Structures are given as C-alpha cells and as structure tokens.
Amino acid sequence: GENITQNIMTIRSIPLKIKAPEHFPSILEVRGEVIMSKISFLELNKQRENNGEALFANPRNAAAGSLRQLDPSITASRKLDAFFYGAGNFQELPVDSHSELISIYNDRGLKIFNKSKKCKTLEEIEEFYSLMGKQRDSLPFEIDGLVIKVNSKKLQNELGFISRSPRWAIAYKFEAIEATTHINEVINQVGRTGAITPVAVLEPVEVGGVIVSRATLHNYEEISRKDIRIKDNVFIRRAGDVIPEVVKPILNLRTGKELIIEIPEFCPSCSSKLKKIEGEVVLRCESIHCEAQLVERISHFVSKDAMNILSLGSALIEGLVENKKLFSVLDIYKLQFDDLFALPRMGDKLASKLIESISASKNTTFSRFIFALGIRFVGKKTSEILSERFSDIHSLSQASKETLQNIEEIGERIAESVRAFFDDSINMKLIDEMFLLGVRPENPAVKKISNILEDKSFVFTGTLNTLTRTKAEDLVKKNGGRVLSSVSGNLDYLVCGEEAGSKLEKARKHDVKIISEKEFLNLINYRG
Ligand SMILES: [Zn+2]
Asked: How far does residue 425's CA lie from ligand 1's centre (Å)?
C-alpha cells in the first residue's frame, strides 16, 4: 500500500525505459521482486554494526526496509536488485505462454531469473527441484523454493483461480533453513580489530543439510534486545555461506532455569579490560598485546583478497603465534624453515610450499596491500579507491584528513581511521620493515620511467633546492625505488638537503650512504 516508485527508480538493474514489444498494448504491467544479494546484505549489516545501528535479520527484511525509505538516496545506497516474472495484464498481452513473456522481458532488458527451466513431466520438475536445492547455497541471493507454473496461457485460463490464488501456479519450498535448538554456553570471540562477538555454543542441529553447533549472537545489545539466555531453546538460521545466527528465544519453552548472559568485563584472550566506545554497540579489547587479535589480523593479512598466502591457514597461524614465532604480520616475512618445524605435523613439503607462497606474496598490488593492513573501515572496495587516488603507501600515509575526505566515497569515519592508522609510528615502522624485507606493492596506475633504483630505498631530509619533496619522492618511485619514512640500518640512501636534522645524525650512526640532492639527480639521470 505504499508508493515506492521513486525508490524503485534507484535500482540500477531496473530500466527506466524499454522499447515496446511488438503488438503489445500501450500499458505493460510488469511484476517482479526486489531482492538484496547475500553479499550486499552482509556488507550492509557490517556497516550498521560499525555504526551502532540495529541489524537486519535477513536479506528479505533488509530489502523491504530499504524500499520503504522516505529518502530515495538511502535506497540507492543499498545495492538492491530485481527480477521480473510476470505481468499484471498477462491476459491482454499477445503471447501464448509464460515462457514467451519471460523471453520478451529478457530481450527488453528486464532482468529475469536465468536458471528457470521448462519441464515436461513431474519427474523433470523433481529433478530440477533437487538440482536447485543443491545450487541454492551458491546462488548470490537467498531463495526459499521454486514456483511451478503451467506454461500455456490457454491451460492457465482453463484452470482458473480459487479465490485469489491461481490453480496454475504453486510454490515448491526447500527444506527450512531455520531450526530450533538449545544454547549450552556462550563464548566470546575476539576479532582482528578487538571487537568482541558473543557466540552461542549450541546443541548440534542440522540446518538445511549442515550440522550447526555455533551461532553468532552479534553483540550484547542484540542479546538484551532479543532477551536471549543460556539454556534457552532458540530459533537459529543459516543461509548460504553466512555464519549461522540465533534469531530469537522460544519463550513458551522456558523453565525458569535459564541464565542471563553476562556482559564480559575482560578480554577472553589477553584479560585486558574491555571498552565500549561511545556510539558503538560492540565491546572491544584495545590491547596491542592481544594474541586473539593478532591471529585474526594475520589471518586477514594473508587472506585471498589481501596478500593471498593461502597455505598459511588459521590453525598454522595460531600455532606460530602460540610458539612465539609471529608477533606481527611482519614476522611472516622472517619465517625460516626451523620456525615452521616447531609446529606439529609439519613436513618438508608443506614447509617448502609455505615459504614459497610467502615469498610469492611479496609481489602484490597496492590495493591488496592497503586492504591487507586491516585499517578499520577500509575494505576491499575502499582500498581500490585509495590505490587509484594515491601512487603509493608513502603518499597515502601523508594525506590529510581533508584530502582523504575530498575523495568521493570516503567519508569522515574512514578518513579519520586512515589518519589514525598512519599517525601511529608503530604502523609506519612495520610498513617500512616489510618493504625492506622485499614486500613490493606495485601500483598499476603509476607509470615507470626506469628501473635504475630497483631494490633501493630512500629517505629525504632537509630542504631541497630544485625539487619539491613530493616531486623528489615521485621520481624515486617512477625509477623503481622505494621511499621510506624513517632511517634505519637497512636504508640505502639518505638524500640530504639544507638544514637537515636528526635523520642525518641517525644515518651517520647507521652508516647509511648520505647523498646530496645533486647526487640524487645524477643517480637517476634527471635533466629537469
Ligand atoms: Zn585481548
């Protein structure tokens, strides 16, 4: 009963105009369904969790909620999609069957579900049903079943309607992806940014063909809002690759023996006092010595869209952290065969494979590297945007909050988080050291002049005469070299301008080669 036309018009896959199909009446009343993909749903909920907003229970609610927005720009930001499957005035249309209509839709750019199938027998329908049941998890959106329709318009008319529902169409649902079970215990997991996620340990139960023994409770505000307790019988829900979640307790099964889930005070991994940042719903461990966070940070660093060191799985990472072989992501690049053999079940083959893939990961792209750093709120997409805007990590690290915020799609929250990350000297040092160990993020957007400076690292200090600092650093990069932010024993060159400060002293102490601006320009054959 709501007019959502303005909102519908923001959905990209819905054409605003189509060419009229031949012999069609002047009005075509198109029927379809708006959906939100699993991935957009996850992203949206993650964003809402970060903003301290209430989460959507499932993509269907999220899609409905997004359509009912009063402000179409909010709807536009929600990445909705739509499929079309029928016509309100089907009777008036010059087509003989459902499939004919759908193929006209397809020709005219109205999106259809392209996996639908024309079946001739009930056996074929059963076969297709079981096939789709198997493919269901790998579809980019959730489906709860199929609709089986009589194809011929003539037969449809013969069958007619019972009250308002057609006799020629019926839903054939899949097995439920919700199940009921019992919460035995609640544990707290620590994420890579220190966020604490309460997780229900369940009496194992089968949900849509998979045994589920844990489900997320999201955060303590969700727990209190839904009034979930230990020993409660609960509905749980699992959809595709999404982590199963506890939906709600079954109140009429309560015995009075249920226990309130206490909000933890201390980190389950490092015992630091947990904090809740104002305006956020999640609790955080802010300790930099937290092992659980370290394992998560390293897992993120090596993940597929980051440095892509897939042979370094989470069990191995845990083992290496426990055995004090990894204290930061940097240590990955210091791992030796002997370190690996400290782990159980480590053989020559696996160890070589690991060392090899760690080494291969050093040549990566700038956007992957940004993503790998695990800066809060900087996901894959944001990393790509930043890599297009900045030539390398050095220039990104020097961008002001204002410069960052001036980039479309980068808001205040991201800008502040990026700034805070690079303002932390520990992070800068970590990056410098990674570069010295051979990590080489290439930015395809930067055009190279030469490779004269390959494998050479530079730091600039003092005032340069002919070049600006930015220009000088740019020349290093364009000639294949790297710019670091601080002086250490591994640095190749300190380029020294006038009135050089403490960096010069430090370079002398470390025996770093010190050159003048002119010598630098000669090095790269620069002619102005
Ligand atoms: Zn901790």
From this structure: 21
For the domain that residue 207 is a member of, what is the CATH number? Answer: 2.40.50.140
Residues 137 and 232 in one domain: no
Structure-derived torsion over alpha carbons of residues 421, 424, 428, 429, reported in degrees to the nearest 10: -140
Q: How many residues does the chain have?
A: 528
C-alpha pair distances (Å), 453 with each of 35, 66, 243, 391: 52, 52, 47, 17
Give me ligand 1 centre to Cα 222, in Å.
Answer: 22
Give the Cα-Cα-Cα angle 297, 303, 306 (nearest 5 degrees): 90
We report the CATH number of the domain holding residue 303 as: 1.10.150.20
Angle at 158 between CA 155 and CA 162, to 5 degrees: 115
Contact 410, 374 (CB under 8 A): no
Residues with Cβ within 8 Å of 167's Cβ and at least 6 positions away in sequence, in order, are 159, 160, 161
* Dist. CA 286 → ligand 1 center (Å): 7
Of 245, 249, 198, 190, the C-alpha closest to 221 is 198
478 has a pLDDT exceeding 60:
yes
Residue 218 and residue 193 share a domain: yes
Is the ipTM value over 0.95, yes or no?
yes
Q: What is the pLDDT of residue 164?
A: 73
Beta strands per DSSP E along 381-504:
440-442, 457-461, 482-483, 493-496
Burial 125-149 (b: 16+ CB within 10 A, else e): eeebbeebbeebbeeebbbeebeeb
Q: What pLDDT is stored for residue 444 in this prediction?
A: 79
Q: How far is the CA of 190 from the centre of ligand 1 (A)?
A: 7
Q: How far apart are CA 443 and CA 364, in angstroms?
A: 9
Residue with tokens 């650093």: 473
For residue 187, the CA-to-ligand 1 centroid distance in Å is 14
What separation in Å is there between the alpha carbon of 264 and the centre of ligand 1?
12
459 CA distance to ligand 1 middle (Å): 36
Q: Are 201 and 146 part of one and the same domain?
A: no
Q: List the domain range (segments joined by +) for residue 208.
A: 178-276
In a domain, 52, yes or no: yes
Chain centroid to Cα 163, Å, comes to: 46
Long-range contacts of the stretch 118-121 (C-beta < 8 A, 24+): 118/151
Neighbours of ion ligand 1 (CB under 5 A): 267, 269-270, 272, 285, 287, 290
Asked if 194 and 293 count as a contact pair (C-beta separation under 8 A), the reply is yes
The pLDDT tens digits of the residues spanning 332-372 come to 999 998 889 888 888 888 899 999 999 999 999 999 999 99
